[in-house]
Amino acid sequence: MSGIGVVWAVMKNDLRLILARPSSTILAVLIPVNFLILFSLFALGGARVPVGMVQADSGAYSATMVQALNQTNTFRITAVPSQNAAQRLIDGQQSVATINIVPGFSKAIASGADVTLPVTIDNLNADFANDIRRALPLGILNFYEKTTPSVLPMGWHEVDEYPHDVSFFGYLAVSIETVALLLGGILLTSRGVAGEWEQGTIKELKLSPAPTWALLTGKILTGYLTSMVSAALIFGILTIFGIHPQNWGLLIASSLVILLIFATIGLAVGMMAKSQFVVYPLVLGVSLPLFFISGGFGPVSWSTPAMLWVARVFPVIYANTILQRAIHGFWPLDVGVGVAWLVFAIWGLAAVGLSIWLYRRATLAK
Amino acid sequence: MMTQWKALWTIIKKDLLVFLRNPSRIVVTIVPSLAVLLLLVLQGAAVQGSPVAIVNQDKGAAAQQLVKDAQAYNGFLKATVMTNEQAQQAYNHLKVAAVLTIPAGFSRELAAAGHPTVQWKIQNFNADSANDLRRALPDIVNQFISQESDGNNPIHVKVAETDLHSLDAGFVPFEMVAVLVILLLQASTVNAGLAAVSEWESGSIKELLMSPASVLTVILGKILSGVFASDAVGIITVGVAAAGGLFPGLSVSAVLLSLLAATLLSFFGSGVGVTLASVFRVTEKTTLTSILIAFYLFFLSGGIVSLAYLPMWVRWVATFIPNTYAVNLFRNTLLYHSSAGLTTDLLILLAAAAVGLAMGLPAMRRSLAH
């Protein structure tokens, strides 16, 4: 039988096995989709800080202050009638801060007197609390820009690199998609490989005259084809969530290549793990750290050198960057596309090389 | 009675030995938590902010002061003074997220009440990082104005802040607590499920049923092996985190309370794992479904953010999920040294443990009967 014939036979066999265990296969295909949906919950929460606002002053300056705070693009304001009501929002985990516009606020501003804006913060962590602390001066300066700009001794002029901001969800969704593709490629390939070890059919494969390259290629292609189903579902869901790529051609072409690389990594993972119950929790367990280093929140080059060094080793960040280009049109990485493809090639070749070595050194004894 | 206790302990010991003698099972149980911890530590410093460049084209004192204020600002990872060309190159190569340019004549214009303007050029990839930068400069300007005004600050609105906790918890410890909860649940669900399903797959279920151990003893043995495996994960993770200084001021009572909460959550997870094992009786489906459930419970209880940031329907669902109360208890105990909501959290976790047992015991009993 020629090598191509072996590839085809392996694929046909594995696809039949997949169809013979539909519920397990459906579960495995849906894992990346579930990952996408669940992480989107986190992203849909958005970057706005939920706060309660007690507006105890009815003057015009009070209304302007509320507008100014809204214009910071930081707060999701819920008006409440009293401090007690505001505290109930915090206790019920519906807000993390209360801003009070005290009685006499407008009168004090009109007369040029000092006035205090009491703010209560549920300082759960420094990151959330500092978003609030830093937005307040912006709100106050916005207020003076609207009311008495002449009292401000200086100003600033903002220049944005891009005509509009991509939303928090829109940006994060690309990284979620990248990790979901990774999960699909690795899981769906490794389970087929690990299954051969678990069932003991690896012995028959090793005893057969089939060339090693053909056997492994068949395994990769099976996982690749199955993970395309996952990928299609992921794209469909993102489209429903309102993510519309700028370049569909680049998105599809690059996703197919990226998925192939992830499938080869899945081959190596399956060869090393030799067991599905190791593959599933391990791959899912590392999905969270991989998400963090994929540049999901912004360019990794803005992070610490240690983080950047770790991120650069893995293909996830390069995959994420290519998909960002396809979907949003920018390139949030400090190296070019050539480096990205080089890293993919290295990972792909290393994964295949490792798989061949593991397969060949495996003995027929259990 | 003594026989049953002995049998229970034998079953637990056997399952734990299988766990310990299987390096891959230890790896999959512990490695993810350590990987997340490592990356959170690496990421933690970056949450401070992004790197920016400062181009100062003015030699006056006021400009120098503004530069100092920007460099001292704790919202940037670092603020580096550069020439215009250096700053442009760093900006184009994404080494900095923004460039603050102070034009020539700034100090003179400020002294002459000429209302000078500085330029703030930002890489607005997404609204979140862009808004961080948009908040940063006004914060610096506000401080600068206050310093330069010599007691005659034109800005009369002052913020009086009151914090509900004595300390801000760091980003890393805050996220670590949420990750700890998912790992506890995953470890208990998967390990209890595997401990149970392996008996069917290997056929040793027959030996178990023919032994003098009662059905209840067998089932409890499986559940408890999941609980012990999960507690081990929790102890190792918290131990490493505490050794790394993530939970300062940790008291013995806090550790014991956390262990109690972890154990109760693990009973819930183990009950779910044993139920799934009894239904599917196959490793792959049991493992996959266990992990999916652990992930769903994690995200529907708020995941790595505060519930207040999430849509109302998620907050409503979270009230029925034991993770929500576990996260609350761990954060109060390990981070804020507070007992707020402790009774409620413990009671809910106790109820969750009871629910886990109520699911697992009859499910496995029914499966064993067939």
Mean of residue pLDDT values of chain A? 88
Count of distinct strands of chain B: 5
User: Segments of chain B where pLDDT lies below 50 for 5+ residues?
Assistant: none
H/E element order of chain B: HHEHEHEHEHEHHHHHHHH
> What oligomeric state do the depicted chains represent?
heterodimer
Q: Beta-strand percentage of chain A?
A: 5-15%
Q: What structural class is derived from the secondary structure elements of chain A?
A: alpha/beta
Largest sheet of chain B: 4 strands, mixed
Q: Helicity level of chain A, as a percent range?
A: 55-70%
Terminal Cα span of chain B: 26 Å
How many β strands of chain A by DSSP? 5
Radius of gyration of chain B: 28 Å
Helix content of chain B: 55-70%
Question: Largest interface: which pair?
Answer: A-B, 111 and 111 residues
Task: Describe this protein with a few key phrases.
heterodimer; A: about 375 residues; alpha/beta; about 65% helix; about 10% strand; elongated; B: about 375 residues; 14 helices
Tell me what the structure shows.
The complex is a heterodimer of chains A (366) and B (370). Chain A has 366 residues and is an alpha/beta fold. Helix content of chain A is 67%, strand content 8%. Chain A has 15 helices and 5 strands. In chain A, helix 7 (168-199) packs antiparallel against helix 9 and helix 7 (168-199) crosses helix 14 (316-328). The two termini of chain A are 28 Å apart. The radius of gyration of chain B is 28 Å and the shape is elongated. In chain B, helix 3 (61-72) links the parallel strand 1 (51-56) and strand 2. Chain B is α/β, with parallel strands linked by helices. The longest helix of chain B has 32 residues, at 171-202. Chain B contains 14 helices and 5 strands. Chain B is 69% helix and 8% strand. Chains A and B meet through helix 2, strand 4, helix 6, strand 5 and helix 7 of A and helix 2, strand 4, helix 6, strand 5 and helix 7 of B. Strand 4 (115-121) of chain A pairs parallel with strand 5 (157-163) of chain B, so a sheet runs across the interface.
